[in-house]
Amino acid sequence: MAHEMISSLLDRRVLVTGAHGFIGKHVTKALTKAGYLHLVMPTHADYDLSDQNAVRALFSDVRPDVVIHLAGLVGGILANKQRPAEFFYDNIMLWAAKNGIVGVNATYRLAPAHPWPAGPEDVAGTVRWVRENVAKHSGDPKRVFLCGHSAGGTHVASYAVMPQFHRVDGSGLKGLILISGNYDLTTVKTPDERYRSYFGDDVAKYAERSPFKGLLKLPVPLMMAYAELEPPFIAAQSENLETALRDAKRNFRSIKLKGHSHISITYSINTKDTELSDAMLEFIKNVN
Q: Which pairing describes strands 38-40 and 66-69: parallel, antiparallel, or unpaired?
């Protein structure tokens, strides 16, 4: 009976993702040695598994009986140096795809070559592109949720509350998620080079370049998150915004992640630590 079961499995079509990677090569070698007759081993060039449509095409083309999933984005010191942050931000896209969400990663031009308002301008371009193209990837252009972390949180907040940057009807957003951003620049009395290179030397303009007051009147649902171990000035930004939103009697969702830092808060997404990602998913699903 056991021999017959093994024999029947050997005839099944087995899809091995990541078959050409370090682990995949050893697994496929063992499967071949064991007598598996129908191994399907696509490359990233054949099917980009971070693209939902490509995944659907793969399963439609191959129709596997068994799937061994070994694909992943990996790299060492050089890869991380050449593509900073790509590894963990792409993890967020994988989490999105796993939960039926079309994830879009976007970056922005950097100071000092691109000072204010390059950030919200780049966010505006991203939102417009998503609205025009997401349907091609099975997404709903009427349900665009914008999320930003750290400086990205500042940029997406600025875009959301400053109509001069909107390139679609309203902001084009269904909801906004802010993670560990800098929202009130008026608290910066003596800006260092990081602030001056982007927001400029004239501190008198910092108020009009701050999204803080606009967030208190934001017309779309808002979620904010920050970590217990944030740098003090970042923690203060989130805590002050949280207090002001409550005082304004705004309905919003806030979460403070214990034991996390400014970086690990986003590293946690698509891992076994689901506190933040569960809250984000619940927020998105509950917005009508």
A: unpaired
Category of 60 on φ-ψ map: left (φ > 0), alpha (ψ -120 to 50) or beta? alpha
* Residue 223: exposure state from Cβ atoms within 10 A (0-12, 13-18, ≥19): buried
pLDDT at 5: 44
Q: What letter does residue 269 receive in the DSSP assignment?
A: T
Give the Cα separation of 222 and 254 in Å (integer): 9
| pLDDT at position 7 | 54
Nearest alpha-carbon partner for 238 in 257, 264, 251? 257
pTM of the full predicted structure? 0.81
The Cα–Cα gap between 83 and 216 comes to 36
**H-helix or E-strand containing 228?**
strand 222-229
d(CA 200, CA 180): 22
CA distance 118 to 130: 18
- Mean pLDDT per 10-residue section of the chain, whose length is 288 residues: 55 93 93 93 91 89 95 75 73 88 92 97 97 94 97 97 93 97 94 95 96 97 98 96 97 97 93 96 96
The architecture CATH gives domain 2-69: 3-Layer(aba) Sandwich (3.40)
pLDDT at 84: 65
Residues 96 and 104: their CA atoms lie apart, in Å, by 9
* Domains of the chain, residue spans: 2-69, 83-286
pLDDT at 112: 95
Q: Is 22 exposed, middle or buried (0-12, 13-18, 19+ CB in 10 A)?
A: exposed
Please state which architecture CATH assigns to domain 83-286: 3-Layer(aba) Sandwich (3.40)
- Token match 């993670």: residue? 179
* Residue 20 structure tokens: 């050409």
* Tokens matching residue 232: 């003090």
CA distance linking residue 14 with residue 31, whole number of Å:
10
